[in-house]
Amino acid sequence: YQINPHFIFNSLNSISSLTISNPAKARDMTIKLSSFFRNTLSKNEKQKSKLREEINNAKLYLDIEKVRFEDKFDFVEEVKDECKEMEVPSMILQPLFENAIKHGVYESLDKVTIKLSCGMEEEYFKITVENNFDPDAVPRKGEGIGIKNIRNRLKLIYNQDNLLTVQKTDNIFKVNIFIPV
Question: How confident is the model over 92-110, as pLDDT tens digits?
Answer without folding.
Answer: 999 999 999 988 998 888 9
